[in-house]
Design a protein that fits this description.
alpha/beta, 2 domains, four-stranded mixed sheet, 16 strands, globular
Length: 434
């Protein structure tokens, strides 16, 4: 009796264990971990819309939405690199096309010293995805210059989901109108407009560079303004001399413009600064157009409460940023990661994500009716302007240069020492770009 009872009991236990085991195996098969830094207004909503679309297409696959807070990925990249080097990658992750994807490294402390360990494509830690683009028949659906930002030695390594613009200005129409400030058309006019707002007691230009990169991004737009698109592009293929006096001039413009930013700029994040414009406390904000996505989540309609323009002096130049997702070699759920890539590569995915994100699609066949007037303008500029890669968002130059530029700009803000800043720029260039 006792024996019988325990046999029955054992069978129940075994059945229960089998159930738990098969359930957890199924749950594991049904997961995909997506890593990004999209947590702020606009970017989080856009990511959620993509996840919803994925859930509709693949209801059995659970999306683990792993985000690390911090604009432009200043925290996320550290976490990601450590995970990559530890061979513990997420299934797919956000990364900028260009140098950041191809040639990034992390400093690892080893035996009391430091060693540079490469993290992504050059280190063979990513799977090529060219065969997927071919299988899905979509290779030629992308803007080829953008797709090329993911290429290395004849293979593509990630899927571009969007194109952002760094040289964008957003302004509060009411604040400008109330203070009789006309929308400026060149850099000198912009400085005059800033001075008028200052006199009127409004913050002329909202800046939030607590994480440094927004100040460096402001500088990159002024660099494009003073060099012009071709010479700016020439910096990244060795055709432009890093001692070109126009680079010094960009620092001069930067210094002039920094007189007009909010005093607490170094305590605010990019979106705090954008919100100053929304709240009527500031006139202008120079920011990547994810700020447009954010302003919309705050309830604003493009063209009604806010206007936009390229950073004065950069008309005809489109400084681009592309967010892409790839497939790490040790991804725990590679098949599900491919499903994710397929959704973000689709016209439907891009047309759901980008109108919320404040970006335009990387594909050429978007349904234009889904895009608001700002984004329609942006698509037109993208098609007609000279395209220049962003430094700060990882496309133009190696990470070492980007970090060094952050440092140069942040010391320049403190010291105002023009000669030093110009010299630092050249030294960093020789060290990291040449
Ligand atoms: C950029 C990224 C954008 C946006 C922004 C602020 O680097 O490309 O998609 O998220 O950071 O977080």
């Amino acid at each position: 009796m006792l024996f019988k009872k325990s046999k029955g009991f054992s069978l129940i236990v075994i059945a229960a264990l089998l159930f738990v085991f098969s359930f957890s195996a199924a749950a594991q098969e049904g997961e995909v971990e997506i890593f990004s830094w999209w947590t702020a207004g606009g970017e989080a909503e856009a990511l959620n819309a993509l996840i919803e679309l994925f859930n509709e297409k693949y209801p059995d696959v659970e999306v683990i939405n792993s985000t690390v807070v911090g604009g432009a990925g200043f925290n996320a990249r550290r976490v990601l690199k450590t995970r990559m080097v530890a061979e513990d990658p997420p299934d797919s992750f956000q990364i900028h096309g260009g140098e950041e994807l191809i040639d990034s490294y992390v400093k690892i402390k080893i035996h009391g010293g430091e060693e540079l360990v490469e993290t992504y494509v050059e280190a063979s830690r990513m799977e090529p995805i060219t065969a997927l683009l071919e299988e899905w028949g979509i290779k030629d659906k992308f803007n080829q210059q953008i797709l090329e930002m993911t290429a290395y030695q004849g293979e593509y390594y990630s899927i571009p989901v969007n194109v952002h613009r760094s040289n964008a200005v957003f302004y509060n129409k009411e604040v400008l109108a109330e203070n009789d400030v006309e929308v400026p058309t060149d850099l000198e006019g912009f400085k005059e407009a800033l001075a008028s707002l200052e006199e009127a007691g409004v913050v002329p230009l909202a800046l939030g560079d607590a994480n440094r990169w927004p100040a460096a991004q402001l500088f990159e737009t002024l660099l494009a303004a003073s060099l012009g698109a071709d010479a700016y592009n020439g910096l990244w293929n060795g055709e432009t001399d890093p001692a070109d006096p126009a680079i010094r001039e960009a620092f001069v413009h930067f210094k002039d413009i920094m007189q007009y930013v909010n005093e607490d700029h170094s305590e605010l994040s990019w979106f705090d600064a954008t919100k100053l414009v929304h709240d009527g406390k500031a006139g202008f904000n120079i920011m990547g157009d994810w700020a447009e996505g954010y302003l919309k989540t705050l309830g604003w309609t493009p063209g009604e409460e806010f206007g936009w323009m390229p950073v004065p002096g950069t008309e005809g130049t489109f400084i681009f940023i592309t967010d892409t997702f790839g497939l790490p070699k040790d991804a725990p759920n590679p098949e599900n990661a491919k499903k994710w890539l397929r959704v973000i590569a689709s016209k439907e995915g891009q047309d759901i994500f980008n109108p919320i994100k404040g970006s335009i699609p990387a594909r050429l066949d978007a349904d234009k009716s889904k895009y608001d007037p700002y984004l329609t303008d942006s698509m037109e500029d993208f098609a007609n302007d000279t395209l220049s890669p962003s430094i700060v968002h990882g496309s133009a130059a190696p990470k070492g240069f980007v970090d060094a530029l952050d440092g140069t700009i942040s010391s320049f803000i403190k010291t105002g020492d023009l000669d030093q800043a110009f010299e630092d720029f050249q030294i960093n260039y020789q060290e990291h770009v040449k």
